[in-house]
């Protein structure tokens, strides 16, 4: 399988430190398909930059050849360093990919740090464990290690390269058998470095592998840490370069030697550290850490599904994030490269189209106008399983040494203080420690301050268990006003109680302590506050019938454009019919909601549905879109608006229902900041309601509204001509999607009467539906038919009756039209079948056209006319969609 993974051109420019820092345009070149790779890819983007290099390191200005001539290290910007972890070299295909990446990096000099193939280090540890515990299965386990490398090599190599590698492998394995206790150090790295260099060499590139035990010198400082000896390592490198001239080098990660020449490892994060030390020693221009994620996330994506990949991080931000457990480089790894301002790029070897995260000294992403495109808060991280200790008492104020005494005790019990907070009143000192250490801390504090507690100078040493820390990290927080206000208001909105707060004056982070069980909720709340657009709207669609499902299709097709162009982020969190509903925590995939509903749909429950759509505290706005024709659903609008939920609907039931309820609903709408839009209840997508409202709002007075308000009846009378049977035309209207769910609602005039009432009330009349006289076109005997379908089946019996009415009008040179009238002057309304001359505008319609004439004080001589298709799935759903966008623009979306 081959696919190409283009590196998408970035609309941003990167700035690193004082110099311009832009993506090399050549990185967008198309790559050739490799014979041994399942991927075709481009070489990794190389970031050109001008960085601040301390003047005491002149080597960056010395040309490589010059320095070689002088027998020095070939340092400088010609070097590009790569590091590939165990998963990157996990099998022959992947080693092939890695080789391709190295080959395609057109830097003059390249140094590649590799880890052992994935699982090999664990296998080696396991061998040692087995051997130590006298379990002789280590012999077969060693065979597995041998086989893994052998088969990989056979896949990748041939001829002399293969023979040479296998001979080395067998030699090593034989040695290992004899000295199993010592072997775990680094053989995996030696083998993968050897193999990869051979693979690269196979393509004609001069490549040598480096056993870093002969180069990197480190001093052990603890069982988990070593300090590189840069001077000695530089000498080691110089010696190595005096013996090797290759410009492409594959170096073993993780392993090094002590000054006494004893092989050792770089402990945790070893290979990253190897790459960083090499980058510093060589003053490389960039280091790429290849891994299996797209970069550094703004929050743990397992907890926050909205988490995004950060484009840039400063070294300090990366430090802070990693302190709080984010999957970034270990701070120790960054120290060597920070010294020389070498950018670190974190990239996904399995997704070459992702540009990754760049970590450098001071990074900002700006648009063309120089405005920052990033949130002042870059990321959020949490630490669980903590307890707060609060030492409190009036006797602490102004007594020097109290804090020192407290933390002296904490140190004595070797507890790890994660954060400290002390109010300036000095009445209390509060700090967080790991839950498992808190008992020892509390006991020791009580013992130490027994006297002060007894004398009442200290009132208590209190423990608050089950806490978590939530930290917001970002360099720009310091210079941006209102960041903490925003953070705390997001927490307040999500009803999270903050137990303690700490903010270092560097302001790289703001730390809050919350209850452990609320931590994920808190994390999501703050993340969405900083990362979601203000016009992110959680939507619940009720009634996915003809209009509802057409709306869902339109949303599916348009959502990306809206997000991209207008920053409007519409998320359908739930869809409910009358029997089943589908809910999703983030948003439903609208390209397959029907299948998913079949599989994962649950029993419909409107209360639960609304709670789900509105109940997540992370999306700032909620709208319920009622696409049913159900009065029961409409009866909930009042409650929804009261909860701050916006309501949009084509359902006429609320606005044409009992007057009292209608007035209550509209009064609430005016008082609240929740919006209620219903443009499609009259004339579908035609701007009927908004036209009437703007006429009134601008001070005009409505005198009369008259028109053809039924798409169905318009269609029927436009097409009920010649010898056509009335019942056939009615069925056609139903099939075209013009009718109500039960077509008798159209033929009875009920639908038109509802529209007349809606417009009458909108014009200020206080009328009930029963005040409107209606001419019912449903033949008497069919009014009691059990269903709309049964009615349609029986309708042909009455074709003759309708044909006669039609003929009467036709003989008089006129046509039949079903019209509605709102007479504002006389405070009345009517719905009736009328005859019109063939040249009357009402006789000129076609299809499902509606025509609505507004006579007002300003439009007194000639009415204002709105005309066009007034029913049908696309136009109606489009009208509902347009109400949704109106809502977004009321909420602040750009226009
Ligand atoms: N068809 C058109 O041209 C226009 C329709 N409308 C209005 O749009 C609304 C929908 O019409 P259609 O899509 O044509 O009808 P439809 O019958 O195709 O769809 C209605 C859907 O609502 C569901 N439903 C009914 N009661 C429900 C409940 N309590 N909870 C959840 N779901 C429920 C039904 O199962 C059905 O899927 C109606 O109010 C209609 O008056 C408005 C303007 C034009
Ligand atoms: N059934 C209605 C649909 C629009 O409200 C009509 O025919 O006009
Ligand atoms: Na309309």
Offer a few descriptive terms:
single chain; 895 residues; alpha/beta; Carbamate kinase; VC0802-like; eight-stranded mixed beta sheet; seven-stranded mixed beta sheet; 30 helices; elongated; binds 1,4-dihydronicotinamide adenine dinucleotide; binds the ligand N[C@@H](CC=O)C(=O)O; binds sodium ion
Helix proportion: 25-40%
CATH topology-level name of the largest domain? Carbamate kinase
How many β-strands, per DSSP?
34
Helix-and-strand structural type: alpha/beta
Describe the protein in words.
- With 895 residues, the protein is an alpha/beta fold.
- The chain has five domains: 1-116 and 189-374, 3-Layer(aba) Sandwich (Carbamate kinase), CATH 3.40.1160; 119-185, no CATH class; 379-527, VC0802-like, CATH 3.30.2130.10; 536-682 and 882-890, Rossmann fold (3-Layer(aba) Sandwich), CATH 3.40.50.720; 689-871, Dihydrodipicolinate Reductase, domain 2 (2-Layer Sandwich).
- It has 30 helices and 34 strands.
- A hairpin with a 3-residue loop joins β24 and β25 (580-583).
- α16 (546-566) crosses α30 (873-890).
- The two termini are 45 Å apart.
- Residues 1-66 have low confidence and may be disordered.
- Sodium ion binds next to loops.
- Bifunctional aspartate kinase and homoserine dehydrogenase that catalyzes the first and the third steps toward the synthesis of lysine, methionine and threonine from aspartate.
- This is ACT domain-containing protein.
- Its cofactor is a metal cation.
- It is found in: Plastid, Chloroplast.
């Amino acid at each position: 399988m081959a696919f190409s993974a283009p590196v998408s051109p970035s609309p941003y420019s990167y700035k690193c430190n004082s110099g311009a820092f832009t993506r090399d345009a050549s990185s967008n070149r198309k790559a050739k398909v490799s014979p041994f790779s399942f991927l075709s890819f481009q070489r990794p983007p190389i970031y050109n930059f001008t960085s601040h290099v301390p003047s005491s390191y002149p080597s960056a200005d010395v040309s490589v050849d010059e320095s070689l001539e002088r027998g020095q290290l070939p340092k400088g910007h010609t070097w590009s360093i790569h590091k590939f972890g165990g998963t990157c070299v996990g099998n022959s295909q992947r080693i092939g990919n890695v080789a391709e990446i190295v080959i395609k990096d057109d830097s003059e000099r390249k140094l590649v740090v590799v880890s052992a193939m994935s699982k090999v280090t664990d296998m080696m540890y396991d061998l040692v464990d087995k051997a130590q515990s006298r379990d002789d299965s280590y012999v077969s386990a060693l065979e597995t290690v041998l086989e893994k490398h052998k088969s990989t090599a056979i896949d990748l190599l041939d001829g002399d390269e293969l023979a040479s590698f296998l001979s080395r492998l067998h030699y090593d394995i034989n040695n290992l058998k004899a000295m199993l206790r010592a072997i775990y150090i680094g053989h995996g790295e030696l083998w993968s470095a050897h193999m990869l260099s051979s693979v690269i060499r196979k393509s004609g590139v001069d490549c040598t592998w480096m056993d870093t035990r002969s180069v990197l010198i480190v001093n052990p400082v603890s069982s988990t840490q070593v300090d590189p000896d840069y001077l000695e390592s530089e000498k080691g490198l110089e010696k190595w370069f005096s013996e090797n001239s290759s410009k492409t080098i594959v170096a073993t990660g993780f392993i090094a030697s002590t000054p006494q020449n004893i092989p050792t490892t770089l402990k945790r994060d070893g290979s990253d550290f190897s790459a960083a030390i090499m980058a510093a020693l060589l003053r490389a221009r960039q280091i790429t850490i290849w891994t299996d994620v797209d970069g550094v996330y703004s929050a743990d994506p397992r907890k926050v599904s909205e988490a995004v990949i950060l484009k840039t991080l400063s070294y300090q931000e990366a430090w802070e994030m990693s302190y709080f457990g984010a999957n970034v480089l270990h701070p120790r790894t960054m120290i060597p490269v920070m010294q020389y301002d070498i950018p670190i790029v974190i990239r996904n070897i399995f997704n070459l189209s992702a540009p990754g995260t760049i970590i450098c000294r001071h990074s900002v992403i700006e648009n063309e106008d120089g405005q920052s495109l990033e949130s002042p808060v870059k990321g959020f991280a949490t630490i669980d399983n903590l307890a707060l200790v609060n030492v409190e008492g009036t006797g602490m104020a102004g007594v020097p040494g109290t804090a020192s005494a407290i933390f002296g005790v904490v140190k004595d019990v070797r507890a790890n203080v994660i954060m400290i907070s002390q109010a300036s009143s000095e009445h209390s000192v509060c700090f967080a420690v790991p839950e498992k250490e808190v008992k020892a801390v509390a006991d020791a504090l009580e013992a130490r301050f027994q006297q002060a507690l007894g004398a009442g100078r200290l009132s208590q040493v209190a423990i608050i268990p089950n806490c978590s820390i939530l930290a917001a990290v970002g360099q720009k927080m310091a210079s941006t006003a209102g960041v903490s206000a925003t953070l705390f208001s997001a927490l307040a909105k999500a009803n999270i109680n903050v137990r303690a707060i700490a903010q270092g004056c560097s302001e790289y982070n703001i730390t809050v302590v919350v209850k452990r069980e609320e931590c994920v909720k808190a994390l999501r709340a703050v993340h969405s506050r900083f990362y979601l657009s203000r016009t992110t709207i959680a939507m619940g669609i009720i009634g996915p019938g003809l209009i509802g499902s057409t709306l869902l299709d339109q949303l599916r097709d348009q959502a990306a454009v809206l997000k991209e162009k207008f920053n409007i982020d519409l998320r359908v969190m739930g869809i409910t019919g009358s029997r089943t509903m589908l809910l999703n925590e983030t948003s439903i995939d609208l390209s397959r909601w029907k299948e998913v509903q079949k599989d994962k749909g649950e029993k419909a429950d409107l209360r639960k549905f609304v709670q789900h759509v509105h109940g997540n505290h992370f999306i700032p706005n909620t709208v319920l879109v009622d696409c049913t024709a159900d009065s029961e659903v409409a009866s909930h609008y009042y409650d929804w608006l009261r909860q701050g939920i916006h309501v949009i609907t084509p359902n006429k039931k609320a606005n044409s229902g009992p007057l009292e309820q209608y007035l209550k609903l509209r009064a609430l709408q005016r008082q609240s900041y929740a919006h209620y839009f219903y443009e499609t209840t009259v004339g579908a997508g035609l701007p009927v309601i908004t036209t009437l409202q703007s006429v009134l709002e601008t001070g005009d007075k409505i005198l009369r509204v008259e028109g053809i308000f039924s798409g169905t009846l318009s269609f029927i009378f436009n097409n009920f001509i010649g010898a056509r049977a009335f019942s056939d035309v009615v069925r056609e209207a139903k099939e075209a999607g013009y009718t109500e769910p039960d077509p008798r609602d159209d033929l009875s005039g009920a639908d038109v009467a509802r529209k007349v009432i809606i417009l009458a009330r909108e014009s200020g009349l206080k009328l009930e539906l029963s005040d409107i006289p209606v001419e019912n076109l449903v033949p008497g005997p069919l009014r009691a038919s059990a269903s709309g379908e049964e009615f349609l089946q029986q309708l042909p019996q009455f074709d003759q009756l309708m044909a006669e009415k039609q003929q009467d009008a036709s003989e008089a040179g006129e046509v039949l039209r079903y019209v509605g009238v709102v007479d504002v002057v006389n405070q009345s309304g009517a719905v009736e079948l009328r005859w019109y001359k063939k040249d009357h505008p009402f006789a000129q319609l076609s299809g499902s056209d509606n025509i609505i004439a507004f006579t007002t004080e300003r439009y007194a001589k000639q009415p204002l006319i709105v005309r066009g298709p007034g029913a049908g799935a696309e136009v109606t759903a489009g009208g509902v969609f347009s109400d949704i966008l109106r809502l977004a623009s009321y909420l602040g979306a750009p226009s």
